[in-house]
């Protein structure tokens, strides 16, 4: 399948600071890539280069094979919601904004009206269609930004913190929308510090640190790789202090079931042998979550 986004070797320097240092990203239709990293890692700078808002010092971007830096029309393939940049006019209503941006990106007026109404309903902003943006709540403005990005039905969506500041229900609605858009074949690049959102949505993960991609892979593979040698051991009843003190010397951790064992499978068998004849309820390899992965990769574990 052809790449919707193909970015290679992107570099950006601000004075002496190299903010992005050789970042390559690719996205196919239907994929959600979670682009993660600590504060100041280079995510927004990268996204701005992808969106044609910043000129890279090096590297290339192709959107469906076309470079937005050589051919601005390539940006037609892209819709972006960038943090702190709610690309809407404050003194225009929600509906006027959507129609305006729809027409500016090539929709006919009637089609823009229909699409705007449908998006407003979908994001539960229907009752605010005729409200000026400056009178919408922060979360409503955030949802309107998403609607603006979707007006021209782009193949690629760049979503920088799309659920930030949304209430639980709205965040879940936006999450469901992202999932539906991916199922409908959109390629989505998602930046967020909400790792549980990223884990639920992303088919692939890329972690950037100090301008470099330090980890990239399909979500299940990444989680599997980091699950490592980490087991949960559940006994029917809590272990006695005497048992516990002996088993701790073999690597058992925790005060009550489920206990945790970090180590290889030889060590696990020694531990299980020593546990005999204590009845066991469950022995399972613990699953890593994206938080574990993130903390290990950015080196703060
Ligand atoms: N216009 C600019 N001028 C100077 N330095 C900048 C500029 N924009 C970004 N930087 C610096 O580049 C580095 C990367 O910033 P960037 O905004 O890309 O990080 P980020 O990963 O998006 O962080 P966050 O998670 O905090 O949003 C930071 O050190 C930042 O201070």
TrEMBL record:
Broad EC category: hydrolase
UniProt keyword annotation of Repeat present: no
InterPro entries cross-referenced by the UniProt entry: AAA+_ATPase, ABC_transporter-like_ATP-bd, ABC_transporter_ATP-binding, P-loop_NTPase
The ABC transporter domain, residue ranges: 5-235
Keywords: ATP-binding, Hydrolase, Nucleotide-binding, Transport
SMART domains: AAA
A Pfam match: ABC_tran
E.C. numbers: 3.6.3.-
UniProt key word S-adenosyl-L-methionine: no
Molecular function, one GO term: ATP hydrolysis activity
PANTHER family registered for this protein in UniProt: ABC TRANSPORTER ATP-BINDING PROTEIN
Protein name per Swiss-Prot or TrEMBL: Daunorubicin/doxorubicin resistance ATP-binding protein DrrA
Organism: Meiothermus taiwanensis
